[in-house]
Amino acid sequence: MATKSSVRSSCAGRDRGQAVLLCALVVVVAALVSVGVTEVGAAMIDRQRAQMAADAAALAGVGGGRAAATDVARRNHATLVNFERSGSDVVVVVVAGSARATARAGDGP
Question: Is the pLDDT of residue 47 over 80?
């Protein structure tokens, strides 16, 4: 008949190594979450950069036209992709990284 100590040692032998697998799984999940957070953060930064560049380009475009809007967008690490003037209002579309933003500005109230 098996004693308690021999039963424990045979069970412990089967469980050996499971902690390593669990730790490896935790590391993999943490790495995937980290990559996801990084991607979301990068997208948020691109979106903010695009909106900031669009706002500045629209304001510059009111007084200086398309050339001024293009220059301001470029200085803000973005590309002006559309410029429309309607009376005293200007609407611009810029792209920064993977984000696209639109802004409107005018010289009136």
Answer: yes
